[in-house]
Amino acid sequence: HSTYRITFTYPVLNAAANVMFLISGGGHKAEMVKKALQDPAANLPCQGVQPAEGKLMWYLDQQAASKL
C-alpha cells in the first residue's frame, strides 16, 4: 500500500493560528530545547517557525525542560 506524506513549509506553519512543539525525553533533546529557546544564533529549523498572528506553544516534559 502507498504511503502519503504532507510537508508543511515555513509559510504554511507561520500562517497557522496555533503551532505546538511537543518534546519528551532528556539528554540530547534537553540540550536542543535549551539551544532552540535561548540561542537565537543557533539557526535551528524550529526557530524558523514564528507564527505571524498565531500562537507558538512548547509542551515539554520534565526531562526535556531539565536544561532550562
Helix and strand arrangement:
Layout: H1 10-14, E1 18-23, H2 28-38, E2 55-60
Parallel strand pairs: 1-2
Task: Describe this structure as you would to a colleague.
This protein has 68 residues and is an alpha+beta fold. The chain has one domain. It is 24% helix and 18% strand. It has a two-stranded parallel sheet with strand order 1-2. Strand 1 (18-23), helix 2 and strand 2 form a beta-alpha-beta unit. The protein is globular. The mean pLDDT is 96.
Query: What sort of overall outline do the alpha carbons produce when their principal axes are compared?
Result: globular
Q: Spell the H/E element sequence.
A: HEHE
The number of helices is: 2
Uncertain segments: none
- Largest sheet properties: 2 strands, parallel
Task: Give me the count of strands.
Answer: 2
End-to-end gap = 43 Å
Mean pLDDT: 96
Look at the helices and sheets and give the structural class: alpha+beta
Report the radius of gyration as a whole number of Å.
14 Å
Beta content = 15-25%
Strand order of the largest sheet: 1-2
Structural domains: how many: 1
Helical content stands at 10-25%
Summarize it.
By secondary structure, this protein is an alpha+beta fold. It has one domain (10-60).
Q: Which keywords apply here?
A:
alpha+beta, two-stranded parallel ribbon, 2 helices
